[in-house]
Write a structure and sequence with these properties.
This protein is of the alpha/beta class. 45% of the residues lie in helices and 14% in strands.
């Protein structure tokens, strides 16, 4: 499989230094690296395009290096940023590195004996012993201030887009990233750096540093920054990033994110975030065009990415949870939900609280719905709706207006889900 051809049809190439495609078409194994920000102990889906590129690279027979920017993460990259980042401690960075490697292991082969097995490297390991005087002599003298000032990431910050300007610390970032490329070129035979299009200036500083210090040629390839069709920022929601770690974004929420992308984005994301072939994606597109209401592209996208990140069992659980809102026979599935998924599924519904002692003694259903909680404005209205079959408790019809609700009915020993009509849900917590 030709790496550049594969990325090209998927829309994953923004820029390449001349000669890059030729380098990758010689039939020889090439070593390349891509940098990952270690400022959190989980990747989010903003990292996913870069991770997919590394996986394509390895699948094409080449050797990927995932560089965790421990040193550069302690400084902060000004590219695309309007303010300086908080600086992290070494302990925090090491913890984040281990967590990130565990996530990357779902995508890349780090463990086999294959010649092109992936490696995780951390630039803190070679930058930590580097004195400022050594850095100034060995790196700083080769790159002029004029060259550094010409970079877009620097010009934007200096031209008033940032209230506080650009610190010297951030100004030196491109030299640090450039030295990473030089170090990996010398130590690992790494001839190619890959990254997002916003990294082009930093990456080309590395190729220039290699040319000026070693007289050698190095190469670069960037992917476009992923956007939504409406111009919004990809991967951002009202509650923040969509993380790959289930502690921060549950598999259900992760699945829902992909399931709810627009038709205009679904085809593009299938190319970028899955390994489906051109033929498979074209078939899905034709199926979608025939009946857009069934959303086959979104369903396949959500299934592929959720399985890749969280596994088949998590996908199945997310799919079952997704059916609960639309099924009147979902009582068993509801009881099988873990607490976080239950809260995610019913996020935003009215939430009431009730005394656990009262519930233990048993509460008449009409009192629960119209006295202890305001699901209904009066017991009369509650009675009428119960008699008409319009009330469900824990997704099961409740038709006895003289019936009671007790602690044995709690979901996870904590929650009661009341439903009025088809679409009105209320979550009641026993405390």
């Amino acid at each position: 499989m030709n790496f550049v051809d594969e990325l090209r049809w998927r829309g994953m190439i923004h820029s390449m230094i001349p000669g890059t495609e030729e380098l990758l078409s010689k039939g020889e194994m090439v070593t390349a690296y891509l940098g990952i920000d270690p400022t959190a102990d989980s990747l989010h889906i903003g990292h996913l395009c870069g991770v997919m590129i590394l996986r394509h690279f390895q699948r094409c027979g080449h050797k990927p290096l995932a560089l965790v920017g421990g040193a550069t993460g302690m400084i902060g990259d000004p590219s695309g940023k309007s303010a300086e980042r908080n600086l992290l401690t070494e302990e925090t960075l090491r913890h984040n590195q281990e967590a990130i490697k565990k996530q990357l292991s779902r995508f890349l082969d780090f463990e086999s004996e294959a010649e092109n097995r992936a490696e995780l490297v951390n630039n803190y390991d070679w930058m930590k012993p580097f004195s400022f005087l050594d850095f100034a002599r060995e790196v700083g003298k080769h790159i002029t201030v004029n060259y550094m000032m010409a970079k877009d990431s620097v010009k934007k910050r200096l031209n008033g887009e940032a209230r506080d300007g650009l610190s010297f610390t951030e100004f030196t970032y491109q030299l640090l990233q450039g030295y990473d490329f030089l170090h990996l070129f010398k130590e690992k035979g790494c001839k190619l750096q890959m990254g997002g299009s916003d990294q082009w200036g930093n990456i080309t500083t590395g190729t220039e540093l290699i040319r000026r210090t070693l007289g050698e040629e190095a190469f670069a390839l960037t992917c476009p920054l992923i956007t939504k069709a409406d111009g919004g920022k990809f991967g951002k929601t009202e509650s923040g990033n969509i993380w790959l770690d289930a502690r921060y974004t549950s598999p259900y929420k992760f699945y829902q994110f992909w399931l709810n992308v627009s038709d205009a984005d679904a085809e593009k994301y299938l190319k970028i975030f899955t390994f489906l072939t051109q033929e498979e994606i074209a078939a899905l597109k034709a199926e979608h065009d025939a009946d857009p209401g069934l959303r086959p592209m979104q369903k396949r996208l959500a299934a592929e990415v959720t399985t890749m990140v969280h596994g088949a069992e998590a996908l199945e659980a997310a799919q079952e949870a997704s059916k609960i809102l639309f099924s009147n026979k979902a009582g068993e599935a509801l009881r099988n939900l873990d607490e976080q998924t239950l809260l995610d599924v019913f996020e935003g519904v009215p939430h009431f609280r009730i005394s656990r002692e009262k519930l233990a003694a048993g509460i008449p259903v009409l009192d629960l719905l119209a006295v202890e909680t305001p699901v209904f404005p009066s017991k009369g209205e509650a009675r009428k709706m119960v008699q008409q079959g319009g009330v469900s408790i824990n997704k099961e019809k409740f038709t006895d207006p003289a019936g009671t609700i007790d602690a044995t009915m709690l979901l996870g020993d904590k929650y009661i889900l009341a439903q009025r009509g088809k679409k009105n849900y209320y979550l009641i917590t026993a405390e």
